Amino acid sequence: MPEMQQLADSMLAAAGAVLGRLVEQPATATPAARNDHDGSIRVDGDELVTIAEIASLGAQVVVRFPKSDMQAIVGVMLGGGDEMTEMGPMQLSIASETVSQIASAMAEQLAKEIGTSADGVHAALCSDVTLLPPPPFESYEGAVMLGESLMPRLTVDFAAITLSKLGISPSAAAAPAASAPEPAPGPAPAPTPAPAAERPAAKKPAKPSAPPPNAQPVAYTAMQPTQVRAAQPGQANLDLVHDVPLQISAVLGKTVMPLREVVSLSSGTVFELDKLAADPIDLYVNNILIARGEVVVVDDKYAVKISELNPQAQ
User: Fold this and answer.
1) Is residue 151 domain-shared with residue 298, that is, in the same domain?
2) Per the domain annotation, does 46 fall within a domain?
């Protein structure tokens, strides 16, 4: 099993490879330096916090990025240099995807180094502090040199439960225990016998107490499990979910565009979708395709007239 320092260095190298590919510049990762984080990690501060999970172990690794460094990275990716002063919604979305890709690559490299499967490794930006593992953390800091001017920093945190699942013992230094003073050399004095009056009396073994004369065995009433009534076909427990709100989306069509075209969209821009004008639109409920139909107008509002139900079954 590699040491934690070697694992952290390898993960930083993987982060450098991803960053270099994204900004199309040569990347060099610095050696990791240990700087443990004893308290809870904040998600509302000056850092973008991601959680990477190794599914084969059920272990989580926290990777933190300074917002100012990611702001410069996004500026370079969009072709505006590293002098961006503020990130809008589009820039924040790009930064979120970027840090997720970096954290995923670091978790995959960690899985490879410890000899476990990297299948199912995923990472995402964390905005809920309750999803983070509890402190304290064994933390390692490093940086990636991009070209000649950019040097973003990042920190990877391993909680105690994560180290346990990785099969690694925490390497925190233990405080030296206080030692009792050694006795002076010389013959040991003979013990002085205590007076007979002060000697403790020998304890007699306790006799088991007899049960009271009126004790009786406890009798328990025999009971049968309650029978569950079967629900009527087609109506099994539906009353419990009738008031659950669902999100319904009518999708006219989809397309795939590179990032440079997305950020260049403006008012009046026209782009093609993957459907013809006569094709029906897809109707999704909570991102599940349930029907297809055509667009109609009802009382000056758009509506959907369903022409096909459950198209996935076909």
Assistant:
1) no
2) yes
Please check whether residue 122 lies inside any domain of the structure: yes
pLDDT tens, per residue, the chain with 314 residues: 578 899 999 999 999 999 988 888 899 999 999 999 888 898 888 999 999 999 998 999 999 999 999 888 888 887 766 565 677 777 888 888 899 999 999 999 999 999 999 999 999 999 888 899 988 899 999 999 988 888 999 999 999 999 988 887 765 433 333 344 444 455 555 555 555 445 555 555 555 555 556 556 656 556 666 665 665 555 555 565 667 788 888 998 889 888 878 888 888 888 888 888 888 999 888 778 889 998 888 888 889 899 988 876 65
Please tell me the total number of residues recorded for the chain in this structure.
Answer: 314
Of 134, 149, 165, the position where a domain reaches its end is: 165
Is 28 inside a domain boundary?
yes
The reply to whether 109 falls in a domain is: yes
Q: What's the CA gap between 89 and 94, in Å, rounded?
A: 9
Q: In terms of pTM, does the model score above 0.90? A: no
> Both tokens of residue 181?
């003073």
Same domain, 252 and 147: no
Element (H, E) at 68: helix 67-77
The Cα 236–Cα 9 span in angstroms is 55
